[in-house]
Amino acid sequence: MTTQTNVPALNFGPGGVTAPTEAEILSGVLTDMNAAFGGQLNTVNLASPQGQLASSLTAIIGDKNSTMMRYVSQVDPLYAQGRMQDAIGRIYFLDRKPAQPTVVTVTCTGLAGVTIPLGALVSDSAGNVYACAGAGTIPPGGSIDLQFANQQTGPIPCAAGAIASIYQAIAGWDSAYNASDGALGNDVESAAEFEFRRQNSVALNAIGTLPSIYANVFAVPGVLDVYCAENTSNAPITQGATQYPLAPHSIYVAVVGGDPQEVARAIWLKKSVGADYNGNTTVAVQDTSGYEPPYPAYNVTFNIPQSVAIQFYIELANSPVLPSNILQSIQQAVINGFAGSDGGARARIGSTIYASRFYSAIMAIDPSVEIVSMQLGIGAATASRVQLGIDQSPTVSAADIQVALV
Q1: What is the distance between the alpha carbons of residues 243 and 246, in angstroms, rounded to a whole number?
Q2: Are residues 293 and 355 in the same domain?
Q3: For residue range 85-104, what is the model confidence (pLDDT) as tens digits?
C-alpha cells in the first residue's frame, strides 16, 4: 500500500536543498489528520487536542528538515565545520592543526661561539616559559635573534620586553630580551583558518610554483603564517608597503613559527632549480635522495619577518551600565580577533588590517557597548586601516590597546 501525505517534501534543485515553511508543514499535517479521522476534525483551533498534536508534529518535521539542510550544507567546503570539515580536509591529506603557541623573536646575548640549543628555555614577566624553536650559535657580535615558542598553546600575548630571564641556564649565555611583541598563537584551527589552508593546499603536489611552496611551508608543524612572492625579471624589484627588495630571478618566503630546518627543507623541496632566494635566515639543507654520505648540501634563505605591533585606540560611549571589566574584555576581544580565534581570519604578513574587523567582537561583549570611534596604526593609532609590508608580521598585546570612555 502506498502511503501519501500532504506535508511538502524537501526539494533538491539546482540551487541546493529548500524546505517548506512551517506554515506549509502545519497545513499538510492538519490535512493528513483530518483525512485519517474521517474529515470531521476542527483544523482551525490549534488549542484543541488535534491542534496541539499537529503543532508538535510540525515542530518535529521542521527540526528534522533543518538538520537535513545543515547536513547537506556540510558537503560544501565553504560552509563545512567540525567533523564534516575534517573529512573534506582528508580528501586533500590534510588534518586540522592543533592549538599552536605564541612565537616571539628573542635576542640572546652572550659569549661568541656559545650554542643556544633547540628547546632552550626563557620566561616572561607573567611566568610563561618559552622554548627555542631552532638552535643557533652566538656570532662574534655577541648576540643572535632566535624564535622561541610558548610552552602553552593559544593566543597568549607576549608584549615587547616581557621576556625577563633565562629559565634554564647555559654557560656563556648571559641574557634574553624581546624587542617586539610575539606573534599570537591560536587555539585549535578554526573552520575559517582550516578552509583558508585547504584552498591553498591544492598545489601541494606541484613543484616549482609559489602556491606549492606556500602550501608545503604552511604544512610544517608550528608554522603560524607564510607569505610567498617572486621576481621573474632580470633586474631587482621592490614589493609591498615597505618596498622590500627582491633579487632577479628569485623567490621570497616569509615564515612565522616552525623549526627553521624544516621550513628550509619545505622550501627546497618545492622551489625551481636555480632560483635565487631573499631573506635574513639561511639554513643548509642536505639532499639525501639517492646519495651516500657525504650528502650534497644547499643553502636555503628565507625571511623571518619583523614583528610589528599594531596600536589600537577605541572610544566608547560612557555609560553607568558598562561592565566593570570593560577594558580587559575589549582587549581580549581584539586579541582573539587578531589571532582568528573568533572564527574570522587572523591578521597576516603583508595584509591590510581594518578597524571594522573588530567591531562585531567588541559589540558582542555587552548590549551597553557603543563604539564612538576606532583607529589603529603602526607606532600610533591614527587610521581606519593599516597596510603591512611583506617583511612585517603584525602582533598585538594588551598594552597596545587603549580604550577611552567619552
Answers
A1: 9
A2: no
A3: 888 888 877 888 888 899 99
